[in-house]
Input
Amino acid sequence: MTRPLTLADVEALARAAHQGQTDKAGRPYAEHLAAVAGGVRDRGGDAEQIAAAWLHDAVEDDAVSRAWLAGAALTPRTKAIVDAVTKRAGEEPAAYARRILDTPGALLVKEADLAHNADPERLAVLDEPTRGRLTEKYARMRALLGLDA
Output
């Protein structure tokens, strides 16, 4: 049997998978992954949730395949969280939010992701239309997830 991936393994894998990618502000994408993983840790998340945070965009961004995730030496819970926070093409936001809410541990990962995405310092470098569109999008998702209650 393959040994389980450690958090250090997952971090290295995520950084390599997203190598050369940048976020909307032009920053290395790994900075976002590190911020989300740190946000999960700061919110009391466990190792499985932190691992999922490192991988939260990997399938969605085609950095790794669904088949890779299915066969990875990760816990079933980590895989389920990554799957839950992975948006599907054409999926309605309400369906996406329901899947997150129905998956134990996924809400904390998505909360940390939204917090970093909506960070005013991060948004400040974007043009006004993009900043407004993203601010609205993140607020809608927070509301669907019950994070503003």
